[in-house]
Amino acid sequence: MHAIVVGGGLVGSLEACFLAKRGFSVDLYEAREDIRLLEHVKGRSINLALSIRGREALKAVGLEEEVVASGIPMRARRIHDTNGRLSSQPYGTEEQYLLSVDRRKLNETLLSAAESNSDVNLHFSHKLLKADFKDGKAVFLNSSEGSEVEVTADLIVGCDGAYSTLRRQIMKATRLNYSQEYIPHGYMELTIPPSNDNTFQMEQNFLHIWPRGQFMMIALPNQDKSFTVTLFMPFIMFECIRTREDLLKFFEEQFRDGLRLIGREELCECFFSSKALPLISIKCWPYHVGNNAVILGDAAHAMVPFYGQGMNCGLEDCLVLDEMLGAYGDDLGKALTCYSIKRNPDVKAICDLAMYNYVEMRDLVNSRWFVFRKKIDSILHFFMPNSYIPLYTMVSFTRMRYHHVINKWKSQSKMIDSALIVLFLASILAPTTYFASRKQQWRLW
Ligand code: FAD
Ligand code: EGO
Questions:
Q1: Superfamily in which the 2-79+100-181+280-358 domain is placed by CATH
Q2: pTM of the model
């Protein structure tokens, strides 16, 4: 059988590997040039946090080891307060850590792995224009030659990101439910360079977080000993920072240690030469049409990045689709229907959790609260290792289905609430009954 994969990003290139393994002959079409041949790649986020779900998907195509070897483990969060004081909390046990991976490097690894299959052909500079699902036809614009190419296939898989063209085509063909939401925050990437003697300027095996309520900053380590810093802030605040003085004053007050590490000159240079990028959350349903097309990754579910799960979820999508193709063999229609039905509650759950985390982190007034909340979590987990598992742990370090995570989290919260009520009542009633019984005794006496 012949499959077309639209998009050669993280999810598209992994999906090509999966389909080749299932015996499909695969043609992958990517709108950009081959990033492996480019000096400079423009676009989003330089590094990403890879966790268990993404790793399991990579493992299934034999790439886990290679990717893990080039990533940097982040074993704990390190919280920076406004005075530059630090506090850290481990993510869990020895095996529970995030990996900071380079987006470009991971994408290159996946493309090369896909290409190494004799039945996979990669076509760069080919942009999907439209698709016709009646006869499984897709039309691409070859931007290097300015010509249009028409291709037919048994299966079209859309991995063309949040602004997916294939999704728009599916919308015209079927009753696709769709909703999107831009949040008030945007993000901007900055860099903490390596020190003069070429070492990391902060400790490397941490996810560094500067929680400040309305805005926040994080930093993930890179292999070249730099850190990529991401500042999340409402667009209106970005717009309020107009001059060097505004910017330096803001950083001086909020991120003094960060400012020193980034460098004043470099900060101003970078801040004023880039613009804040938007964050969008997208949900839709179903993910397939008929028996020949389906969307995966951001094309099916863009989420806000406040859980570090977008890519992990997209890679897990490939794993779930592969499971369905395995179970229903040649009946593509059934495999795609079952994929949509099985994946929907989980996709909805992680989009909601990501949005919930955004609201939660935004409303935490400062870093003290952040640390406090994480302490409570770890204390409860220490005393009830099986019945209380922190939400973050379930999402990032287990492959529990996302919608089961929400259910367990809700029942845990209920349990904690009841325990608190019992404690509260006991603390009122116990002394009262005690004194009441003493009074009784006294009367008898
Ligand atoms: P994309 O990476 O967007 O790839 C889509 C590809 O399709 C692109 O190569 C594009 O050129 C191509 N394309 C688009 N249109 C067409 C067309 N018409 N024809 C042909 N090709 C086309 N996730 C994590 O798991 N951990 C993190 O730490 C994390 N951090 C993030 C931080 C930020 C600031 C942001 C914005 C996101 C973050 N994510 C993270 C999410 C992650 O980046 C995405 O979920 C992931 O990149 C989705 O991969 P994708 O392949 O579905 O889409
Ligand atoms: C109370 C305290 C409630 C992404 C803390 C909720 C997210 C949330 C964006 C971190 C880690 C990978 C990330 C933690 C919370 C990536 C992440 C977390 C950010 C921002 C991120 C944690 C890229 C939320 N994981 N996380 O527990 O360390 O806690 F800070 Cl802005």
A1: FAD/NAD(P)-binding domain (3.50.50.60)
A2: 0.94
